[in-house]
């Protein structure tokens, strides 16, 4: 999608300082694999005001959380993404562009009954997406892919939540433990091309319970 690259090069990175970027498990796994980073280095937890199917527990009956990219500290009145690189005045770039989350890959587009169109409140420079009509199919597929990844993440989260309710440690879990389970779950869901899925880990429920009991 060369159109996306061109539009982002014309941008000042405003979306990267104005938003908190939500993550799916696929997003986390892709960044871990591509950047060789521990997830705790770039993931923060955000409490949910209303529980959702993608909100994870750290203790039975406790709050549910979503995950998002961390922000850089110490920037007054701004919340720059942990991966945003400041090159010079007015020029900022994503430090993980090839592995960025799907929320970033699909911004500022949304699906509408008439097709794909930019959001009304987008922060991109005027005219950035004038050529959207040239590649509607690619954007449409990317947005559908995002929906599928959220659905898959909900299954992974629900397996974890079930295990937390069954075998909670006395003090509950911490974010780092949930993220370790998350990477293990997606390692199972995304085996290397030359390796079959581990038959012992076919069930996410079994994987989550085994992970919780080992802590």
List the helices and strands and how they pair.
Blueprint: H1 2-9, H2 15-18, H3 25-35, E1 43-47, E2 56-57, E3 64-69, E4 84-88, E5 91-94, H4 102-106, E6 109-112, E7 115-118, H5 136-166, H6 175-189, H7 204-213
Antiparallel strand pairs: 1-3, 2-3, 4-5, 6-7
Characteristic terms for this protein:
single chain, 215 residues, alpha+beta, 3-stranded antiparallel beta sheet, two-stranded antiparallel sheet, 7 helices, 7 strands, 14% strand, globular
Can you put this structure into words, describing what you see?
With 215 residues, the chain is of the alpha+beta class. The protein has one domain. The chain is built from seven helices and seven strands; from the N terminus they run H-H-H-E-E-E-E-E-H-E-E-H-H-H. The chain has helices spanning 2-9, 15-18, 25-35, 102-106, 136-166, 175-189, 204-213; strands at 43-47, 56-57, 64-69, 84-88, 91-94, 109-112, 115-118. The chain has a three-stranded antiparallel beta sheet. Strands 4-5 form a two-stranded antiparallel ribbon. Strands 6-7 form a two-stranded antiparallel ribbon. A hairpin with a 6-residue loop joins strand 2 (56-57) and strand 3 (64-69). Helix 3 (25-35) crosses helix 6 and helix 5 (136-166) crosses helix 7 (204-213). The longest helix is centred in the C-terminal third of the chain and has 31 residues, at 136-166.
